[in-house]
Amino acid sequence: MSKINTIAFIGLGNMGGPMAANLVNGGFAVTAFDLSDEVLTQARAQGCKTVSSIGEAVQGKDAVVTMLPAGKHVRSVYIGANGVFANAKTGALFCDCSTIDVQSARDVAGEAQKLGFSMVDSPVSGGVAAASAGTLAFMVGGPDAAFEAAQSVLEPMAKAIYHAGDSGAGQAAKICNNMLLGITMIGTAEAFVLAKKLGLDSQRFFDISANASGQNWSMTSYCPEPGPVPASPANNGYKPGFSAAMMLKDLRLAQDAAQSSGTATPLGAEAQALYAMFDSLGGGGTDFSGIIEMLNGNMGKV
Ligand code: NAD
Q: What's the pLDDT at 300?
């Protein structure tokens, strides 16, 4: 594939806005489209050209990057009558960075390939801060050639780019990772709540467990208990970070995938139920580590 110079960026919300800005800073000519005028105004201030339709955005561009809420949005943006497929130039590369269900990712990529386009699913790990800093981790699904072509587009936004496998494998990696993250966060929170009830000082428990077999990322990099990890949202009123609503979305995607593949994931199911409860109690907008306050019986504080 020839060198990529021009990019259409569709979906410039909390994540897409800063990602598009990093593509501009990386030397690409970026044309932006979103349904929201507000985010387009911001995109202009960050050096993007803005247009008023998907067609105008993608016509003649070497690549298209999308960062949309869910599978149904991705399907309509790509497959819709006035969508990406109907307007993109032959051979263009598509990178869908949204977190969506595996089946939608496979369906859209399959359709793209039939029409002679290259496509990867390339969901990200890391929240708005990583999107702004250009330090997202991309989990990429798609054929080798599409993965190779996507590298130059993803690099200005990335600290790491992994090739997970064929189409849909990026989404599979993302939801399996986040299912594990949700489970370890709840487990870590439970351990701190119980330790405190047993009269154990939280910092001392951290010092022991962080160096023992209970050690995990949710504890040592993102501790839900205020104190031990200064940069964690627990020390900032559980301001996200990565919101509990986003975690719930990913846990639901994991449960859908478990159901459709006939896989038993009892802890994943329980994590989904607990985050749904946290959300219904008003915790959805707080960081996902704030679930410790529900386990503390202390929802008033989050
Ligand atoms: P967001 O709601 O802030 O942004 C989505 C944007 O898509 C909005 O600006 C919306 O107007 C636009 N949009 C929706 N339908 C459209 C259409 N048909 N045409 C054009 N634009 C359209 O969401 P976000 O937080 O930026 O998340 C985007 C994706 O990234 C989601 O799939 C999410 O799961 C994933 N993600 C988010 C985070 C996070 O911390 N926010 C972290 C990792 C992954």
A: 57
Catalytic residue among 72, 89, 174, 197, which? 174
Give just the sign of the alpha carbon dihedral 125, 128, 129, 132.
Answer: positive
Residue 14 in contact with ligand 1 by CB distance below 6 A: yes
The amino acid occupying position 101 is: D
Per-residue model confidence as pLDDT tens digits over 197-253: 999 999 999 999 999 999 999 999 999 999 999 999 999 999 988 999 999 999 999
174: annotated active-site residue? yes
Pairing verdict, β 136-141 and 93-96: unpaired
Number of continuous H segments (helices) and E segments (strands) in the chain: 14, 9
For residue 240, the ligand 1 atom closest to its alpha carbon is 40
127 lines ligand 1 (CB under 6 A): yes
Nearest atom (ligand 1) to Cα of 15:
26
Mapped onto helix, strand or coil, the DSSP state of residue 98 is coil
**Is residue 13 within 6 Å of ligand 1 at its C-beta?**
yes
Q: How far is the CA of 27 from the centre of ligand 1 (A)?
A: 23
Q: How far is the CA of 34 from the centre of ligand 1 (A)?
A: 10
Kindly list the structural domains of the chain, giving each domain's residue range(s) and its CATH number in brackets, ordered by start.
Answer: 6-167 (3.40.50.720), 172-301 (1.10.1040.10)
Q: Which pLDDT band, with edges at 50, 70 and 90, does 302 fall under?
A: very low
Q: What pLDDT, in 10s, does the model give residues 247-282?
A: 999 999 999 999 999 999 999 999 999 999 999 999
Confidence (pTM): 0.94
Question: Is 93 in a helix, a strand, or coil?
Answer: strand
Mean pLDDT, residues 57-86 = 97
